[in-house]
Design goal:
With about 350 residues, this protein is an alpha/beta fold. About 45% of the residues lie in helices and about 20% in strands. An 8-stranded parallel β-barrel has the order 3-4-5-6-7-8-9-10, surrounded by 6 helices. Strand 1 and strand 2 form a beta hairpin.
Length: about 350
């Protein structure tokens, strides 16, 4: 079990819930746009947000951003130790640096001194593009892990132990193997994810396999689904990964793969039902089935489900039909039965 580290008002590690992270893609200097995106990420289920701090203009923005959001903010720093120090003073709940690219030891020591003073953790690590030259003779996954651990040792040598580690590769297997290796060596919390996973289905598949495999092994305290595009999608996919492993409460929508018997557009209805369920955090399995021939039977393990014909829809609970309705009234009647079901679950 990993040690517990507090990031703002969020604890990670130990038996704490796994926290979803993402990163803004707005210009940090654009305060309003960045605040708006952070709030949207938080509403979607993100627990910690990372913000890039590339220059001192961004430090000024960071102060305003931190004041106007409730979620912990991680300042992402490269090369300039002064940016790390000023980010801490500006209110960042954690900083992300690699001591190896900060420069001279005294610069790293200054960052550590201020981090200690303010009680701010430091995330360090490596990705497949930042493997240290001294480890190139090792297998790639081990080289990645040792590159991350070298950054840890630098901080430890300076008496700092409020550390979170990240070792990511665009290769799913390297990511898994590197994190298993690190987990066997230290007990610091691990931030896991497959970096540069790509777009669309490719990113979803890589992230689901890489993150899921590690979580099944009990490895990982925070996660990020890294994909090009809207960061809100990262959070939604991360939630589905956690729900599928029973590590996050909330409804799961299941749907049949369709066949020639189908008389409704299952994909369209499943997406609509998913939208209907936004804001509900109870554990719930909802089935969207394509036909009344055997769909109800196949979906009988679901708490509640819908299926239908061209003109009508059927609502069923635990495989038993409770109502046949016109399609135009499906949402209204679905919620009627859902609210009754949730009321029974709570009593």
């Amino acid at each position: 079990m990993s040690r517990i580290i507090k990031i703002g008002n969020v604890e990670i590690g130990g038996n704490n819930p796994i926290v979803i992270q993402s990163m803004t893609n707005t210009k940090t200097a654009d305060v309003n746009a960045t605040i708006s995106q952070i709030r949207a990420l938080s509403s979607a289920g993100c627990g910690i947000v990372r913000v890039s701090v590339p220059d001192f203009e961004s430090i000024k923005s960071l102060k305003e951003i931190v004041k106007n959001v409730k979620i912990p903010i991680v300042a992402d720093i490269h090369f300039d130790y002064r940016l790390a120090i000023e980010s801490i003073k500006a209110g960042a709940s954690k900083i992300r640096i690699n001591p190896g690219n900060i420069g001279a030891d005294w610069k790293v020591r200054e960052v550590v001194r201020v981090a200690k003073e303010y009680g701010v953790p430091i995330r360090v690590g490596a990705n497949s593009g930042s493997i240290k030259k001294g480890y190139t003779h090792l297998q790639k996954a081990e080289a990645l892990a040792e590159s991350a651990l070298e950054e840890v040792r630098i901080l430890e040598s300076m008496g700092f132990d409020r550390i979170v580690i990240s070792a990511k590769s665009s290769s799913v297997m390297e990511t898994i193997e590197a994190n298993v290796y690190i987990h066997s060596k230290v007990d610091y919390p691990l931030h896991i994810g497959v970096t540069e996973a790509g777009v669309g289905e490719s990113a979803i598949v890589k992230s689901s396999i890489g993150i899921g495999a590690l979580l099944i092994k009990g490895i990982g305290d925070t996660i990020r689904v890294s994909m090009a595009g809207d960061p809100i999608k990262e959070v939604l996919i991360a939630k589905e990964i956690l729900k599928s492993l029973g590590k996050l409460k909330g409804p799961q929508v299941i749907a049949c793969p369709t066949c020639a018997r189908t008389e409704i557009e299952v994909e369209v209805l499943a997406k609509e039902v998913t939208e209907w369920l936004e804001g509900i955090d109870e554990e719930l399995t909802v089935a969207v089935m394509g036909c009344v021939v055997n769909g109800i039977g196949e979906g009988k393990h679901a708490d509640i489900g819908v299926t239908g014909t061209k003109d009508q829809a059927v609502i069923f609970i635990k495989g038993k039909i409770v109502e046949q309705v016109e399609k135009g009234k499906l949402k209204e009647r679905f919620f009627f039965h859902l609210e009754n079901l949730l009321g029974r679950k709570k009593t």
